[in-house]
């Protein structure tokens, strides 16, 4: 139960973060409200939370509140799909109709819960006396609506999953399987209610298996709706770590070049605190260091030529270029002027930016070894 609550809280936090960035996104707002209701329903279902609610609002209030929150959870889930439809106005009309339907179900289960003594309403689904019509109606009404809403959401999710590409389709299929499993669990619970209402007995292992199926399917659904976002964050983290590593690997080359040509160091756009703070970001420092290294190589290129070298293009491997850079830095420190104009350096690994960075890192690594 605690693990499921952690998963829901993490998913809710991610959606709240996205909603703050896009506050007018109706589908996103619906899925955020869906996760909010689901997250709130679990503390109410726990023994401590249930006793607290019952103490304040009366016996049985916690169970009623939990089921109402679950009904609102699946309602907002349906709204997510309705607001995502191509015809927004039709989706809004359907959402209003579904709001009336869930309102009727909420009123019905509330009436059922309030018309029986709290001693009869006490207990869990597995221990409740289903021979009491109000109790059977309470669980059957909530379960049937959950089955309907989850089944509709499963159908829409599979439709979107077939239309999507990875990684979005992977997350949608995970969510679809979770929704389908929840709908199946609700259908089984409805059958259990009917059997017990008729006076039959249901084995405890069956009840436990249905409860486990519900928990597992909710976790799978929560993981599915956050999969693509979590994967994007993981990719961003990997890129951040790579830029941070490459920034450090470029340090020997950058230090040599900026010591020889301090003017190549780029400054923040303005002395404002915000610009200075942005300039310290890993990605900005990484790209700035690449530019500074390239500018420094252009400035120092006249000192890299030996007698007999082709002045049209300087094509050297990393170790040789590192050795010449060390000698050139010594000449500059001695005050020897540039003997000729700047010379372009050959791109041995290719002309794209990624190859450029690899070449700079290779030269920087060679300088580190030489030191």
The gross shape turns out to be: elongated
| Helix count, DSSP H or I runs of 4 or more residues | 14
Strand share of the residues? under 5%
Distance between the termini: 57 Å
Give start-end ranges of low-pLDDT stretches: 54-58
Mean pLDDT: 80
Topology as a string of helices (H) and strands (E)? HHHHHHHHHHHHHH
Strand count, sense and barrel status of the largest sheet are: none
- What share of residues is helical? over 70%
In total, the number of strands is 0
Over the alpha carbons, how many angstroms does the gyration radius reach? 32 Å
Helix/strand-derived class?
A: mainly alpha
Note the main attributes of this structure.
371 residues, single chain, mainly alpha
Describe the secondary-structure layout.
Elements: H1 2-21, H2 26-45, H3 47-57, H4 61-83, H5 88-114, H6 118-121, H7 133-163, H8 168-197, H9 204-249, H10 251-260, H11 273-279, H12 282-300, H13 318-333, H14 353-370
């Amino acid at each position: 139960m605690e693990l499921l609550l952690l998963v829901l809280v993490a998913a809710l936090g991610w959606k709240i973060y996205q909603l703050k960035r896009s506050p007018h996104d109706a589908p996103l707002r619906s899925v955020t409200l869906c996760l909010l209701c689901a997250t709130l329903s679990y503390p109410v279902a726990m023994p401590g939370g249930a006793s607290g609610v019952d103490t304040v609002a009366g016996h049985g209030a916690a169970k009623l509140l939990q089921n109402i929150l679950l009904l609102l959870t699946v309602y907002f889930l349906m709204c997510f799909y309705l607001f995502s439809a191509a015809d927004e106005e039709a989706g809004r009309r359907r959402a209003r109709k579904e709001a009336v339907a869930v309102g009727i179900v909420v009123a019905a289960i509330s009436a059922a819960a309030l018309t029986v003594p709290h001693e009869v309403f006490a207990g869990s689904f597995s221990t409740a006396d289903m021979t009491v019509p109000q109790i059977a109606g309470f669980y059957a009404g909530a379960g049937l609506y959950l089955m309907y809403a989850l089944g509709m959401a499963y159908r829409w999710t599979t439709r979107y999953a077939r239309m999507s590409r990875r990684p979005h389709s992977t997350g949608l299929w995970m969510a679809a399987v979770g929704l389908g499993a929840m709908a199946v669990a609700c259908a089984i619970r409805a059958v259990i209610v009917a059997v017990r209402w008729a006076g039959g007995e249901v084995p405890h292992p069956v009840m436990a298996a249905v409860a486990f199926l519900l928990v597992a399917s909710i976790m799978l659904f929560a993981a599915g709706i956050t999969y693509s976002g979590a994967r994007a964050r993981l990719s961003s983290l990997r890129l951040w770590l790579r830029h941070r590593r490459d920034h450090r690997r470029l340090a020997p080359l950058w230090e040599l070049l900026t010591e020889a040509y301090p003017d190549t160091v780029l400054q923040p756009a303005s002395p404002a605190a915000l610009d200075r703070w942005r300039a310290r970001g890993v990605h900005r420092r990484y790209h700035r260091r690449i530019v500074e290294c390239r500018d420094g190589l252009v400035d120092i290129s006249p000192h890299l030529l030996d007698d007999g070298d082709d002045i049209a293009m300087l094509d050297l491997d990393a170790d040789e270029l590192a050795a010449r850079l060390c000698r050139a830095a010594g000449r500059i420190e001695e005050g020897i002027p540039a003997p000729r104009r700047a010379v372009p350096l050959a791109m041995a690994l290719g002309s794209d930016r990624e190859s450029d960075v690899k070449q700079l890192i290779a030269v920087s690594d060679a300088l580190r070894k030489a030191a």
